[in-house]
Amino acid sequence: MAIQHARSNALLLCLLVALFTLGCRSERQLTYRLVLPDGYVGWVRVDFGVNSAPQVFRGEKRHEIAQIKVGEDGRARTSEGMVIVAPKTEYEFFYDEAGGLRPIPEGLVNHDRDAGGITAMAQDYNQPVKPLSWYFFIGPSSYRSTHPNSEFVKSDAPLPTPGRIRTDIR
pTM for this one? Predict the structure, then answer.
């Protein structure tokens, strides 16, 4: 029951944020630049609103970039809140290689809202206001189609586990 309540709260929070940003007629643009370990395929979890985590937003008044570096464990954290500037939120995906950043192949990413992912309240933090966790998948669309988000948003279903998966999964 607590998981269902937490997911309901997260959904309500996301809807309120979406309604607020849709109501603002701003020309502001936001880009989430996600930097993953080289060759990463698997679920990613980004926790927003973590008290001790670094800030990720940089940029000018009308175009901000949130560069988020994902660890080998598939997780990243920031002290800032998740922002959606509808319809001007973009997602960029890169692998971090020895020679610099390399775009992740288009067949492995989803450019839909929230990168095709889901959000939920993070109950595993000991702080008064629980962070918001954003989960999304980097990998072949065939995997995403056999493991749709609906699989994880049922009240009794566990959320995705961040981390690499076998790369032979198609």
Answer: 0.77
